[in-house]
Design goal:
Shape: globular
Number of strands: 43
Largest sheet: 10 strands, mixed
Helix content: 10-25%
Number of helices: 15
Length: about 850
């Protein structure tokens, strides 16, 4: 009997292979249960009417395996299968289920489409009514297949013959538009019919030309036009083709969306909407006028590296309260990112106003934390019967919503909150015996979902929502456990490289927009700029993608070279603008950088840490000279750190928790200094009653610094503290996401008075990585989890924990429970992987693939 078949192959880090932008996509598959390990594989490619097999390839590789044939050409399709040999099987496995891959438009010459939009006068500095564009055309014979390649200057939603194409939101997302504008490929074969057809698109301002950023925002950051770029390619059954591309023959008209902005919300007048506008029956007269064509370099059009933003969940309100003046206040029980979908009927001209906020103050929406992001949606009814409506080109961060103008009472099912974020595959789960810790972990998950909206943002609700480099630098280990975010972060890191200044400076946030006076002009800053070195390394460790590491190596090298120049011969980075331990709870509300830790201590520590990781990346890539050079540089910086910031007592010149945490976690101390420094860290924590005293830099490091240096019990005390400031204080105060400040909501129920008071900000949730590795007990010790460590370290009265992670090789899981005689553990090692297990009181044990049940009492007796 043949062994079971492997999984279908996947391509790069994409959920499917349609419209791939890589001519030689790498292939990944997982082995079936019981396989153990792979010793060889064979790939089969069916393409261009023929089949080619590689023959048996003696290799254990099964993650991101090189493409086995000639590169794909534009639009080319291939079907791929794999079979594997295992050590004990005389024959190969069955072939995997076929998987299809199809290239997008890989060459600039493939594009005929040009940008098309409204050709009427607009005030470039004011609110502009969005347009719709459309084109009527005929299909002359039966269709074999049809593809729509589409993007926009701004945002778009496409309809063909009245039916929506795709289900993504806020497409094409936000990239550094002058260099990279993402297009998506859709199979629209079933949307078309012989005879007359119509393709049309809603347009929105989005990040391209909408008002965005601080202090009132900036309009027209990338351009003043609002344009569709679309190319519909129809292949008939006789092999001939028909192309319908955006050009001067398209028409434009004002749509029923009167205003739309990512911060402001959307206003929709249903009286102006013809549901048949994108069908052949709609008259091409009246408001429909010729379009204005624009220019776009097709060489800047790129295929996606990850999934799009989609609605992933719908949530009904848990409570609806009608106020004395007729408003309806809705509580959805969860702080989320998305928009409301409502079903309502009322007289013509009835106006409904939808407002949003994360928290309440004195029973009303607390909108001050939104700053200038008004987050108001407005619907004007047509009076023609029940209408189901949802805004198209905006998102809000909210738990509470207020509706004014609703006719009568809100009935069940009439209002739903739809949750939107990049539709990444969930890969990590954790729970334990402490319900407050479980809620904390759930809050981390919700904050990641709400802030991974095409790029990793700081917050989803106020007038900011930017790709802050420091936030994701500290959170990437947590993010890469919880979701398959490799494609999203690879794409964003590409933009970080594009925005890197010629001298090597990494911006505070990417894409870069105006941020005067604090953020523009751009200055190099530690922890934020170090995203260039540390985040590619994290992704390599978690996903095993060496080519990702290689692509971003020049950016990392330029960053470290810059810091070397700034530090000079002293190797001390003690100049310039630094944010230090941002949002240290001791910092005043109006000066988040004024924490207890010397910001130049932080900068020099990161200099050593980044240089060391650049050396590791160079060694992994075979750049031996660079590896040696940057290892020496890291040693010099660490030595400079010790001479400047470490006292003879092994205490630090900044006697703060963050200073000790960073020195210990970054391995900057001599062996003789580590013990006294760790003891002092524990003293500082306990002296403050195990309340948090760290900000963005120290918080991700402090539990590991304590755990790895003999103070696991203190780390658990930190974790389980419920007084402010602490992780569980926020849970006790009803948080359902991670807050920006430890006291965004103060113990007396009032809002923090600072101008930065977000209730959905994932950075301080980076502790979840410690939960996964220490409380749960799963760590990667080789890239992609090819080798794993199962080492739970219980404490704090937590009596059981369960953790699971879908690695690139398959599922790894550990479920442990304390017993009267020790601990029992159920362990799953993915096929093709090996593991080391170290349970409390027991010697390390090597395990192979499969399920294992261990008991420390039995292991101790065996020893």
């Amino acid at each position: 009997m043949l062994p079971p078949q492997p999984s279908p192959v996947s391509f790069e880090h994409l959920p499917d292979g349609l419209g791939i932008g890589v001519a030689s996509p790498r292939l990944t598959w997982t082995l079936p249960a019981g396989t153990g390990r792979q010793v060889s594989y064979e790939l089969e490619l069916e393409r261009r009417g023929g089949i080619r097999r590689t023959g048996r390839v003696d290799s254990a590789e099964q993650v991101l395996v090189p493409w086995p044939g000639d590169p794909l050409t534009s639009r080319e399709r291939a079907t791929v299968r794999v079979r594997v040999w295992t050590p004990d099987a005389a024959s190969p496995s069955e072939w995997s289920t076929p998987a299809d891959v199809e290239a997008g438009l890989l060459d600039a010459a493939d594009w005929q489409a040009v940008p098309v939009g409204a050709d009427w006068d607009e005030d470039p500095e004011g609110e502009r009514r969005p347009a719709r564009v459309r084109k009527n055309f005929r299909i002359h014979r039966p269709i074999a297949r049809a593809r729509l390649y589409v993007t926009a200057h701004g945002l778009y939603e496409v309809e063909i013959n009245g039916h929506r194409v795709g289900d993504e939101a806020l497409a094409p997302g936000w990239t550094v538009y002058p260099h990279r504008l993402r297009y998506r490929t859709h199979d629209v074969t079933t949307h078309l019919t012989e005879g007359p057809n119509t393709v049309g698109a809603w347009l929105g301002d989005g990040w391209y030309r909408g008002k965005y950023g601080f202090d009132g925002g900036t309009r027209n950051i990338y351009g003043t036009d609002q344009s569709l770029i679309a190319q519909l390619e129809v292949e008939y059954d006789d092999g001939t083709t028909h192309v319908v591309a955006t050009d001067e023959t398209w028409k434009a008209a004002p749509g029923p969306i009167l205003t739309s902005g990512l911060y402001e919300g959307e206003t929709f007048d249903a009286r102006l909407h013809d549901p048949a506008w994108a069908t052949p029956s709609a008259a091409d007269t009246g408001d429909w006028t010729p379009v204005r064509t624009g220019v776009r370099d097709p060489a800047t059009l790129v295929a996606p590296l990850g999934p799009p933003v989609r609605c992933t969940e719908e949530i009904a309100p848990i409570e609806v309260t009608r106020t004395g003046d007729g408003r309806h206040l809705l509580d959805f029980g969860q702080n989320l990112v998305g928009r409301l979908r409502i079903t309502v009927d009322g007289p013509v001209g009835t106006t409904l106003t939808l407002r949003h906020a994360e928290v309440l103050q004195d029973g009303e929406l607390a909108t001050r934390p939104l700053r200038e992001a008004t987050s108001v949606d407005t619907l004007i009814l047509s009076g023609t019967g029940p209408l189901t409506w949802e805004p198209r080109f905006t998102l809000h961060g909210f738990r509470y919503a207020e509706i004014t103008g609703w006719p009568g009472d809100v009935a069940a099912g009439q209002v739903t909150a739809r949750v939107y974020h990049t539709d990444m595959r969930r890969t990590g789960w954790f729970e334990c015996s402490d319900p407050l810790v479980n809620r904390l972990h759930e809050n981390v998950v919700w904050s990641m979902r709400g802030n991974f909206v095409d790029l990793p943002t700081d917050c989803p609700q106020r007038d900011e929502r930017l790709g802050w480099t420091g936030d994701i630098q500290v959170f990437a280990p947590t993010a890469s456990f919880l979701f398959d975010c490799a494609g999203l972060l690879d794409s964003w890191l590409t933009d970080v490289g594009l925005e890197q200044l010629p001298d090597g400076t990494i911006p505070w946030y990417v894409p870069v927009i105006p941020g005067e006076p604090m953020w523009t002009p751009i200055h190099p800053g530690a922890a934020w700029g170090d995203v260039a070195t540390l985040t590619p390394w994290t992704l390599f460790q978690r996903f095993g993608d060496r080519e990702l590491l290689r692509r971003h190596f020049p950016m990392a090298k330029a960053w470290v070279d810059l810091v070397e120049r700034l530090a000079g011969p002293t190797r001390l980075w003690d100049t310039g603008v630094q944010l230090g331990d941002w949002l240290d709870p001791a910092a005043p509300p109006d000066d988040p950088a004024a924490g207890r830790t010397d910001r130049y201590l932080v900068a020099t520590a990161y200099f050593a840490h980044s240089a060391r990781h650049l050396s590791l990346a160079a060694a992994e890539l075979g750049f031996d000279a660079d590896a040696e050079q940057y290892a020496a540089l890291a040693a010099e910086a660490a030595d400079a750190f010790r001479h400047r910031y470490v006292l003879p007592s092994a205490h630090l010149t900044s006697d703060s928790a963050t200073a000790y945490a960073i020195a210990l976690a970054f391995d900057l101390l001599t062996p003789e200094q580590r013990g006294p420094a760790a003891d002092r860290l524990a003293e500082i924590v306990l002296a403050d009653g195990a309340r948090i005293s760290t900000g963005f830099v120290g918080t991700p490091l402090i539990c590991d610094a304590l755990t790895d240096h003999g103070h696991l019990d203190v780390a658990y005390q930190l974790l389980l503290q419920t007084e402010c400031p602490s992780w569980l204080y926020t849970v006790a105060m009803g948080a359902t996401t991670i807050w920006e400040r430890w006291d965004s909501l103060r113990p007396d129920g009032t809002l923090n008075p600072g101008g930065m008071t977000s209730f959905n900000h994932y950075a301080l949730g980076a502790v979840a990585d410690w939960l996964h590795r220490v409380v749960g007990g799963i760590s990667a010790i080789a890239p992609g989890y090819r080798r794993l460590s199962f080492r739970p370290r219980p404490g704090g009265g937590i009596s059981w924990a369960r953790v699971r992670h879908d690695t690139p090789y398959g599922t790894a899981a550990l479920s442990w429970e304390l017993t009267a005689t020790g601990m029992t553990a159920d362990i799953t090692v993915p096929e093709g992987c090996t593991a080391t297990v170290e349970l409390p009181g027991c010697a390390p044990l090597a395990l192979g693939p499969g399920d294992h049940v261990l008991d420390t009492a039995e292991l101790g007796a065996a020893a």
